[in-house]
């Protein structure tokens, strides 16, 4: 598919935080491509830079954070060159985001209808209150909230966590955006609620042709939901692959470690697998491959900078000792 | 709601009872008003006659019993000094104090909230630092000294504003008010500003702290992700959340404004209750002191009630008289 047909193309994204000790890069060199209606997973541990990537795409990085390099093309338009006004117009209209903690994303002192109707009317003043209200009610119904008409008048504290996340999803879908970035929206929820929301989200995106970037640390979520996966480690994308390939034949030792860390992967009674060590702190990044201190396959050659390279169609990895040769 | 009001009412009655006992016993122990009130040249017969007339020859518990019976009938006794009903004396002075206190209250909100908002939104700006220095000064400089300086600058040197009295008043429903005439207003400005200064500082700090906290909340980020303009985020999403702690503190502070008015009234010769009560304490005018304190309790109860109602309006999670469910 040619590049201009992609909904979102991110190239060479670098986001850094200017701290007292100097700038540290939370995201170093991220490339992402999302086609129309595609569901893409962005997987990594805490601190791998996946949330910062999502916020960078939205243009929601607050000081002292700053995007210092790269291009973010939404339907061919570079968001990094867009004015703040244009960005505001696009946010919530063409590109939307859902956050991790449903208890915190809705404003506790405003009614649901206030928070939903404003999402429509800040983008299109011509929509009347009544029409906007009807659209909100329909959106609530679509995400599985019972008696949406009455629930519009409720406050966030009158909803459970799962219901609040449904409301957040309904708000994100209100203007039929081209792409939604979902930052671990089911992490704080029960597994039963999680699976309901995953199924609903998948269906909604398929029905409306909305693309989705699902940020998560949970490979089991990715397995059922996504088409393609990017694995991030310490600010780098270390592997990109269609989801079946990634899970069956991981290339990067880190991806392999992640898959082996899933408890159900183990025979009962055996000690659980784990990746030794922890994600390095942003200001103490190892030279070369950032994973090498934790990697079972490391050699001295890993101390050099390592570029992403292709391992067949739609597969890339940042490794010189891959588990599978391309 | 009814249960809530009834509970409040019974609490108030108990407070009134305890208060009156304490004041009664307290004044009884401090000294004998007869020694202060009756001139040294009075004959023993005259002296005895006055003591009997005032009921001061009875044991203290009996005096209290008589007071209580009269109080229930709505009679708080005559002032020893003025020989007028104490309650009428207080009511005649109360409008001046309330006018001063409420003017100061409104000034504190009108100046404090915008400045606090600015300092909270741009905490690093030079202007914000200036605002914070001002608030530290407002906190630490003694009210009476600032009052004197204000008189010195605005009345003595510049001659812009009068230094004492209420000026011309207008009767509204039988209550004299200064604020409605230009002359009265010019008399009101200095004392009200003086009294407001400390509260302005307080409101600035509370608003700033609340805004800084709220701006980091996920719901602000979510509102931005919806494309809501920054002005609406600040004035609706953030301000409404900031108001919740503000209402609690400010409500309590309104009471202290009325109490602190004593100092300001003395400096600016404002004919309010403050002057009256200071004099009454000086001559142990028990009925007047009692009536004043009882009035204060009633006033505080009403203020607290209003605060609770405002609080429940601002924060939907609070419902009066119900057990909190969230």
From TrEMBL, chain A:
It is a peripheral membrane protein. Pfam families: ABC_tran, oligo_HPY. GO terms for cellular component: plasma membrane. SMART domains: AAA (SM00382). It is found in: Cell inner membrane. It comes from the Bacteria. One of its GO terms (biological process) is transmembrane transport. Gene3D superfamilies: P-loop containing nucleotide triphosphate hydrolases (3.40.50.300). InterPro entries: AAA+_ATPase, ABC_Ni/Peptide_Import, ABC_transporter-like_ATP-bd, ABC_transporter-like_CS, Oligopep_ABC_C, P-loop_NTPase. One of its GO terms (molecular function) is ATP binding. Keywords: ATP-binding, Cell membrane, Membrane, Nucleotide-binding, Transport. Residues 8-259 form the ABC transporter domain. PANTHER family: DIPEPTIDE TRANSPORT ATP-BINDING PROTEIN DPPD, OLIGOPEPTIDE TRANSPORT ATP-BINDING PROTEIN APPD. Belongs to the ABC transporter superfamily. NCBIfam families: oligo_HPY. This is Peptide/nickel transport system ATP-binding protein.
Automatic annotation (TrEMBL), chain B:
It is found in: Cell membrane. GO terms for cellular component: plasma membrane. One of its GO terms (biological process) is transmembrane transport. The keyword Cytoplasm does not apply. It is a multi-pass membrane protein. The chain crosses the membrane at residues 12-31, 100-121, 133-157, 177-198, 242-269, 289-311. Gene3D superfamilies: MetI-like (1.10.3720.10). Residues 94-307 form the ABC transmembrane type-1 domain. Keywords: Cell membrane, Membrane, Transmembrane, Transmembrane helix, Transport. InterPro entries: BPD_transp_1_N, MetI-like, MetI-like_sf. PANTHER family: ABC TRANSPORTER PERMEASE PROTEIN (PTHR43163:SF2), DIPEPTIDE TRANSPORT SYSTEM PERMEASE PROTEIN DPPB-RELATED (PTHR43163). Belongs to the binding-protein-dependent transport system permease family. This is Peptide/nickel transport system permease protein. It comes from Consotaella salsifontis.
């Amino acid at each position: 598919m040619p590049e201009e047909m992609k909904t979102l193309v991110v190239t060479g994204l670098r986001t850094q935080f200017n701290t007292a000790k100097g700038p540290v890069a939370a995201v170093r060199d991220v490339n992402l491509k999302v086609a129309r209606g595609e569901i893409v997973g962005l997987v990594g541990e805490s601190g791998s830079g996946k949330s910062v990537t999502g916020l960078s795409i939205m243009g929601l990085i607050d000081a002292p954070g700053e995007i210092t390099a790269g291009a973010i093309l939404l339907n061919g338009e570079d968001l990094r060159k867009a004015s703040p006004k244009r960005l505001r117009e696009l946010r919530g209209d063409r590109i939307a985001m859902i956050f991790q903690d449903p208890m915190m994303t809705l404003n506790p002192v405003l009614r649901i209808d206030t928070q939903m109707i404003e999402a429509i009317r800040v983008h299109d003043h011509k929509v009347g209150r009544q029409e906007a209200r009807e659209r909100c009610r329909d959106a609530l119904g679509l995400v599985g909230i019972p008696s949406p008409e009455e629930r519009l008048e409720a406050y966030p504290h009158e909803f459970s966590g799962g219901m609040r996340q449904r409301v957040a999803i309904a708000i994100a879908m209100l203007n039929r955006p081209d792409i939604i970035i979902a930052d671990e929206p089911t992490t704080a929820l029960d597994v039963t609620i999680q699976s309901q929301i995953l199924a609903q989200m998948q269906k909604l995106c398929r029905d409306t042709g909305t693309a989705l970037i699902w940020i998560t640390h949970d490979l089991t979520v990715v397995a059922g939901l996504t088409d393609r996966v990017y694995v991030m480690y310490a600010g780098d994308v270390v592997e990109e692959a269609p989801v079946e390939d990634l899970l069956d034949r991981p290339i990067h030792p880190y991806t392999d470690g992640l898959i082996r860390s899933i408890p159900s992967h183990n025979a009962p009674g055996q000690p659980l697998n784990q990746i030794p060590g922890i994600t390095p702190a942003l200001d103490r990044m190892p030279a070369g491959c950032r994973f090498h201190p934790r990697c079972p396959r490391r050699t001295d050659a890993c101390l050099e900078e390592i570029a992403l390279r292709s391992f067949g169609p739609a597969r890339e990895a940042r490794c010189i000792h891959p588990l599978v040769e391309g | 709601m009814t249960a809530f009001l009834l509970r409040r009412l019974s609490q108030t009655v108990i407070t009134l009872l305890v208060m009156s006992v304490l004041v009664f016993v307290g004044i009884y122990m401090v000294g004998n008003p007869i020694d202060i009130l009756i001139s040294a040249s009075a004959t023993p017969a005259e002296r005895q006659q006055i003591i009997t007339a005032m009921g001061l020859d009875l044991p203290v518990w009996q005096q209290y019993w008589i007071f209580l019976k009269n109080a229930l009938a709505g009679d708080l006794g005559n002032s020893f000094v003025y020989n007028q009903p104490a309650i009428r004396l207080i009511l005649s002075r109360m409008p001046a104090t309330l006018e001063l206190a409420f003017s100061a209250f409104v000034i504190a909100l009108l100046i404090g909230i915008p400045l606090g908002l600015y300092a909270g939104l741009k905490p690093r700006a030079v202007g914000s630092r200036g605002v914070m220095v001002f608030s530290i000064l407002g906190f630490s400089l003694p009210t009476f000294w600032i009052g004197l300086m204000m008189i010195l600058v605005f009345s003595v040197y510049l001659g812009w504003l009068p230094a004492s009295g209420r000026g011309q008043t207008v009767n509204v429903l039988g209550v004299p008010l200064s604020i409605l005439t230009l002359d009265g207003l010019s008399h009101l400005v200095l004392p009200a500003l003086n009294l407001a200064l400390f509260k302005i500082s307080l409101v600035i700090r509370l608003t700033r702290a609340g805004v800084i906290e709220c701006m980091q909340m996920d719901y602000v980020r979510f509102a931005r992700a919806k494309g809501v303009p920054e002005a609406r985020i600040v004035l609706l999403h953030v301000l409404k959340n900031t108001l919740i702690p503000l209402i609690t503190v400010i409500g309590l502070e309104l009471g202290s404004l009325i109490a602190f008015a004593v100092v300001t009234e003395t400096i600016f010769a404002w004919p309010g209750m403050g002057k009256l009560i200071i004099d009454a304490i000086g001559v142990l005018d028990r009925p007047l002191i009692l009536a004043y304190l009882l009035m204060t309790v009633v006033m505080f109860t009403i203020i607290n009630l209003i605060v609770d109602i405002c609080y429940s309006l601002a924060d939907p999670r609070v419902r009066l008289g119900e057990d909190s469910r969230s």
